[in-house]
Amino acid sequence: MEKLRTAVSQIAATPDERLRELPIFYRFFVPILSFSSYLYRISLNLHQFLYKSTLFRLHRLPVPVISVGNLTWGGNGKTPMVEFIARFLDDLGIPPLILSRGYAGGDEAKMLRRHLLHTSAKVGVGSNRSATAAALFERYGYMNPECSSYYQALFSPQIPGPRLKTSMIGAVILDDGFQHCSLLKDVEVVMINGLSPWGNNYLIPRGPLREPLKALCRAQIVFIHHADLVSYTELNAIVSAVHKISPSIPTFFSRFTPLFLFDVKNPLSKLPLSMVTDMVILCVSAIGCPDAFIHVIKMIGPLHADRLDFSDHHSINLNDIHLIRKGLAILQNRFSIKPVVLITEKDYDRNPTILKEVNDFQILVVCSSLQIIPFKDQTEEDFKMNLTKMLLYKCKTRA
């Protein structure tokens, strides 16, 4: 199954003119994937028609809903952006509720809970997000977005003094919400992977697109993630493609910034990044954009960094442990230094137990956060101001 996932991912990243470069085994699947993409497009159009025609019921939640989603699978910085917005709302005194599907073992939800432990944010997990939200509204209550205290909280960045303190839910953040049609959303934030914005321009499974590019017309804010790994020319090309679809949409840029490390044997530890300087590293990851992870590690300055990539959301098993051990043995023989394994937080939250099978080697987790990069006069403060204005407008139109 892992080989098949790897094949599909490679095909999705390869334009038509370069298909001949792929192994014959990979090319065998192209016609099958193309037909599957055709069926997916029909299903997608039917799904959207049923909601637009109100044949399927739309649910409106009693508080503003901010959706964070993407057009392509994996590696877009979607979940870190959810955390960024949750912290911003918490700072305003508007406790957020994050709604997650809990896909593939709920690694993203686990990471969000750990990161937001000391904030007012709550995380609800379940495929029926309307039902999950209803249960948490009943438990905690919710703020009335039409009341004066809500407006005061939204204006609080400009108003000095203490923030409103409440345990009631003030806003909902949909993690992976762009294709979620059953909930009415007030703000759509779409994340784009700057390293591979559209892949081969085909819909899944032939390509990485979950919707055609024209779907960007539904978005209110667009982020180009991994912008630090992309040239100025490439960034401008992506921005131009976005603005052809939605000319006036605010476009921002973001990147991952590594903060510290912790040892899997002691998750409460907080180790400096410099700890891996001049060391031999094996980067093991099952994420949407492993290239970005490797780049972050190499920037820290190890003696050598090798990699072992699995498909996004893959759960490490005993066969994978054998591959990891084999890679470590090769590195140890080559450099005569005991190598260290580095993994992402998502991989840790997905596989906290199985990784102990490699307990004779040190396994460190890289903790990162999303950072908004100033670009063309668009800054972090501009994004917060845009988001606040949109929430204020939606609150007024709800009244």
UniProtKB/TrEMBL annotation:
Taxonomy, superkingdom = Eukaryota
Q: What's a GO biological-process term for it?
A: lipid A biosynthetic process
**Which E.C. number(s) belong to this protein?**
2.7.1.130
Q: What positions belong to coiled-coil segments?
A: none
What GO cellular component entries does it have?
Answer: membrane
Claim: Kinase is one of the keywords in the record: yes
Q: Which PANTHER family match?
A: TETRAACYLDISACCHARIDE 4'-KINASE, TETRAACYLDISACCHARIDE 4'-KINASE, MITOCHONDRIAL-RELATED
What is the name listed in the Swiss-Prot or TrEMBL entry for this protein? Answer: tetraacyldisaccharide 4'-kinase
Q: Which organism is it from?
A: Vanilla planifolia (Vanilla)
